[in-house]
Amino acid sequence: MVWKVSLKPYTLIYSSKMTTDKKRTKHLIWTGGLLSLLLLSILASMSIGSVHLPIGLSLRILLNYLPFMPQAGTPVQNAIVWDLRLPRIFLAIVVGAMLSASGVAFQGILRNPLADPYILGVSVGAALGAATSILFFQNTSFLGQLSLPLFSFAGGVISLVLVLVLSEYHGRRERESLILAGVVLQSFVGAFLSFLIAIAGHQMQEIVFWMMGSLANRSWSDVAILIPYFVLGISYLLLQYHDLNVIALGERAATHLGMEVEKKKIWTLVVGTLLTAAAVSVVGIIGFVGLIVPHLMRLLVGPDHRILLPLSTVVGAIFLLWSDTIARTIIPSQELPIGVITAFVGAPFFAYLLKKGLRRGKRESF
Amino acid sequence: MNLFEVTGVSQDYGWGQVLNDISFHLAEGENFGIIGPNGSGKSTLIRVISGLLSPSQGEVRFRGKPVHTYRKKELARQIAVLEQEGTALLPFSVKDVVAMGRYPWLKLFSDINSEDERIIAEVLKTLGLWEVRAKPVNTLSGGQRQLVSLARAMAQQPSALILDEPTTYLDIGHQVLVMQHVRRWYMEQGITVIMVLHDLNLAGQYCDQLLLLEQGQIRAWGKAAEVLDEGTITSVYRTGLIKVNHPVLGVPQFLLASV
C-alpha cells in the first residue's frame, strides 16, 4: 500500500536521512568519549592506592605480557598491578555494568522510574539465597561451583515475584506501591539474614560481607565466574531496545503494535534478576547503581534504549570503578564497604527523584 | 467477504455482564462508528474486536480467521488500534514515537531501514508534524499528541484502524482536525475504520454505519441516518434531545431539548 503525498520525495528522503546520520554521529561521539573515559579511569585506578605508582609505570607494567616489550617495574610492583589492582578493577567494571544494565531493564519494562533491583529487594533476596547456600549447602558436591549463583538467583527471583504480587492491585501497579512492597520485603529478608548471622557462628564474617558489599580480596577467578552472565545477560538486554522503547507507550499500546508483552516482561525481568544475582553472589549487596546511572544517562542522551542501554552499561562500569577506588583509598590503610559509597550518593539521588515525581504528578515523564 | 465478523460475543468480567450476545459484521472499506452511553460496553467491544481480549463467549473473525489465532505481529500489520492510553511517558521525540509504528514490520535483530524512514517521513509530512519531529512528545499539547498517535498508526500501514474516543479531551479545532485526517486516510487508502465516539454529532457527520450499544446489547445497527433516530437516542441516553438536519451537510445532528 503506497501512501500518496504531493511532496518532492527527494528532499523528504534526503532530510530524513540527515537526522538519522546526525543521531548516529551523536551516538558515536558519546560511545567513543565514554569508552576513553573508562580506559583513563582504569589507568588512574591502577596508580592510586596505598602504594602509589605513576601512571606511566602502571601502563608499562600493563604491557609486560606483550611480546618484545622491555620488562618494567619490580616484581612487587608487578604483583600489585596484576594480582591486586587489576582483578579488582575488572570486577568493579563487570559488576557496575551488570547492575546498571539491570536497572535500565527493570525501569524500562516495568515503566517505573524508581524500579531498581536493589530498591525492589532483588539484591537482598539474592544475598539471602547466597547466605543459605554458604551455610547449608557449601559441601553439597552435586551442584559444586554452581550452587552459590543458583541459590542467589533463586533468592532474587522469589523476592521479585513477591514484590510484584504485593504491589499489584486489580491489574494496576502504582509506582509508590512498588517501592513500599520493596521496603516490606527488604525488612523481612533483612531480619532473616540477621537471624542467619546470629546462628552462623564462625561463618558470620562471610554473611556480614554480603550485607555490606565489598570488592576487597578478590582474584581473577571471581571475574571469570561473572563473565558468562555478563556477556549473555547484557547481550540479551542490548537486543531488546525496540521492545523497551515500545513498552513506554503502555502495555496495551505495545500489545496492539504486536509485542508479546507478558513474554517479554518475564524474560527481561529474569535476565535483569540473573545479572543482579550473579553480581551479588560474588560481591554482595551494592545499592543504587541501577538507579543513579540510568537516570543520569537519560538526562544526557534521552530515553532511546538503543543508545541508553549500552551507554548506561559503560557508565555503570566507570561509576563502580571510581566508587571502589574511593572505598579502598579514602581512609588510609582501611577498607570501606563499597555499598557505603554508592548509598552515600544514591540515597539523596533517590530522594530527589521521589520528590521530582511527586511534584510533577504520577503520570508525568521519568 | 466480511473483514470483521462478530458472532454471539458475550463478556463477563466477574462483576457483571459487560457484553451480551453481540453479533454484527462489516465489510472492507467501511466507516463504522460505535456509540452508546458510558458503561454500555463500547471499549470492551473494541478490545474484543482487536484481539486484546478473548471474549467469555462467542468469536471474532478477521478475514475469515479467528483473531486470536493470528500471531501478534501479523495482526498488528493489519489492524492499528489507538486506545486512550498510549502516549509515551518518556521524552521520546515525535519521530521516535512515529517510528514505533514500524515495530510490527521489523525483522528479528534488524533496525529501521531506508524504506521505513521514507514511510515515517511521509506520515510526518501528511499530518503536519514534520516541523516538530525533533520535539519531545511530552512537551506537545493534547491535540498534537493525538496527531502523533494517529501518525504512529499510519506508519503501521494497516488495512483497518480502530479508534477509542479519538476526540475526547480535544478542543473543537483539534477534534475536527483528527476526524478529517482519519477521513482523508479512509477516502484515499480505502482502509476500514471502526471508531468509538461519544459525540453524536461527530458520529452523524463522519460515520456511514453506526452501532448503538445499550447495557452491553445492540440497540440499533445500520446506516448512520437510521440509527440516529430521535426516539431511540432519547430513550438510550435518557435525556431530552431534538434531532435537526445539518443546514449545509444534511446529516442528523442533536440539540439539547431543555436546560
Commentary on this structure:
The complex is a heterodimer of chains A (366) and B (259). Chain A has helices at 9-47, 55-62, 75-110, 122-136, 147-167, 175-200, 204-212, 220-238, 241-246, 251-256, 261-283, 289-301, 305-329, 338-360. With 366 residues, chain A is mostly helical. Chain B has helices spanning 42-49, 72-78, 94-99, 114-126, 142-155, 172-189, 200-206, 224-227, 230-237; strands spanning 2-12, 17-27, 31-35, 57-62, 65-66, 79-82, 160-164, 192-196, 209-214, 217-223, 241-245, 252-256. Chain B is globular and about 55 Å long. The mean pLDDT of chain B is 92. Chain A binds chain B through residues 1, 3-5, 7, 9, 12-13, 15-17, 19-20, 111, 239, 242, 245-246, 248-250, 252-253, 255-260, 298, 302-304, 306, 363-366, and chain B through 50, 52, 71-77, 79-83, 85-93, 95-97, 100-101, 103-104, 106, 109, 111, 114, 117-123, 125-126, 133-134, 138, 154, 156-157, 159, 188-189.
The Cα radius of gyration of chain B reads 19 Å
Strand order within the widest beta sheet of chain B: 6-7-8-3-9-10
Task: Measure the end-to-end span of chain A.
Answer: 37 Å
Largest sheet of chain A: none
Q: Quick one: overall form of chain B?
A: globular
Calculate Rg of chain A over CA atoms.
22 Å
Could you report the average pLDDT of chain A, rounded to the nearest whole number?
86
Helix-residue proportion of chain B: 25-40%
Specify the number of helices of chain B.
Answer: 9
**Low-pLDDT windows of residues of chain B:** none
User: What is the terminal separation of chain B in angstroms?
Assistant: 47 Å
N-to-C order of helices and strands of chain A: HHHHHHHHHHHHHH
